[in-house]
Amino acid sequence: MTEIVPGRRGRDRLRSVLAPLGVAAVTAAAFAYVGAVDPNQAGHYPTCPFLYLTGLYCPGCGTLRAMHALGHADVVSALGLNPLAVGTVPFLVFWWGRWALRSWQGRPARTSLAHPAYIWGLFGVVIAFWVMRNTTFGHFLAP
Questions:
Q1: Which of 2, 71, 112, 133 has the greatest number of C-beta atoms within 10 Å?
Q2: pLDDT tens, position by position, 45-65
Q3: What pTM did the predictor assign?
Q4: Radius of gyration of the chain (CA)
């Protein structure tokens, strides 16, 4: 079990969690904006440059519409638009929570996100997703 650094005052604790709280505030504001301004209506957001130039879907295509659907508690539609983006949300929330807790406890933040093998594995999943969603047998992954 980890111990909280002794002798830390409330002001020091608050100062240590300002960065995680700031990230949460910016994320909440962006999520609220995407939830309020429908990306399905033309003219609100720019077209994906990769899709515009090549006619192919990138790994991020459909993410705004998926987050809009999540903002309206429509998980099934969100998964249909970009399952990779929806699948990363729980991991991002976990990592943010861990960062906030470590900051509150006064423990040093980790300087590395993950073992390089995990980073390369994620990179491989993104590339495979990118390729599959642009093939005939992976058309169900297209937004």
A1: 133
A2: 888 899 999 999 999 999 999
A3: 0.80
A4: 19
